[in-house]
Amino acid sequence: MTINSKLPNLPESIFTTMSGLANKHNAINLSQGFPNFETSTILQHLVSQAMSNGHNQYAHMRGDIELREVIAQKIENLYQTNYNPQNEITITAGATEALFNAITCFVNKNDEVIIFKPAFDSYEPVVKLNGGLPVLIQLNYPDYKVNWQEVASKITSKTKMIILNTPLNPTGTLFTNNDMMALQYLITNTNIIVISDEVYEHMTYDGHPHQSACKYPILKAQSFVIASFGKTFHNTGWKIGYCAAPKYLMDEFIKVHEFNIYSINTPTQKAFATFVKDESNYSYLNQFYQNKRDLFLEGIKNSNFTYVPSKGTYFQLLKYDKITQENDVDFAKRLVKEFKIATIPVSVFNVDNLDEKVLRFCFAKTDETIIKATEILCKIN
């Protein structure tokens, strides 16, 4: 059989590669972005309780209404804006499904989609699957600042969508109020749709606030805002998130959702509907992860790596140009084999694999794991 692949040049995911190497060499895995500590035992109990109470059949296609109402209240409390839980919020199979749906329901052949690089690796393939054309804007170490004049120059009559991610994976940087205002100005009086990937919204540090797209009226009116329970509550394997958008956008989103996933795991929705009501179950996260970031940075202060402290996410970039001039992919693989520590080379997220000698480390780990990892990093020279 001859197969005409829609993604003919898609390589193996770097996460698969590095986690596979970590397992093979029994290395500390700071590559893939998942915690190595347990989710709340209370939350686990709530899931079991929901199953015992008979919540084991299909949920509503848009998601459990109580959970949608809780999310609407959470957004109002955090960002002082409202979404109608009946038709402007949808529960999804993680943020990845929400991203897929939002792109798929609007991007057609030859539509242009602006993506800031380095970027999470699911954006471009989904754009291409739908016949769209990724328009890439490279941001650079160490601050990864957006040049909004460059963005303006990339906007054409074919621009259908702009995708942003704040806090930004893999860089750990944030879009500021000025950035959001600049973006809002650029899309005013246009038909451009924004996808705002905000899965790390509760992980910002040193007093820096998270700037959600829903805080800006014109942006909100043209945006899908995407969030993740898996990232927030340390249970990435549960694959549950949500999307909020104005009704006219969500009406299209739900058409893809219906025939892609239809509905999401019912017991977990029931559990989150109870758990998320209590703000204290997520309001502590900024300080919790800042403490882990600080423990990681304190541990490597005498190493040969250089860095700018992460402002958000649970990732920290380290520059290694004082150690070696190796390609970052090669160096990352050597770290696993020789030093038993796995990380992610940032070039794989860049335009044309731009290599700035930078690696991404995940500090969503137990303090014991972080200390062991930093002891290893201090021995590399």
Automatic annotation (TrEMBL):
UniProt feature coiled coil, ranges: none
Leading EC class: transferase
Pfam families named in the record: Aminotran_1_2
Record key words, sorted: Aminotransferase, Pyridoxal phosphate, Transferase
The protein's name in its UniProt record: Methionine aminotransferase
Domain Aminotransferase class I/classII large stretches: 27-373
Top-rank taxon, per record: Bacteria
EC numbers for this chain: 2.6.1.-
Cofactor: pyridoxal 5'-phosphate
GO molecular function, one term: transaminase activity
InterPro entries: Aminotransferase_I/II_large, Kynurenine-oxoglutarate_AT, PyrdxlP-dep_Trfase, PyrdxlP-dep_Trfase_major, PyrdxlP-dep_Trfase_small
Cross-referenced PANTHER family: FI04487P
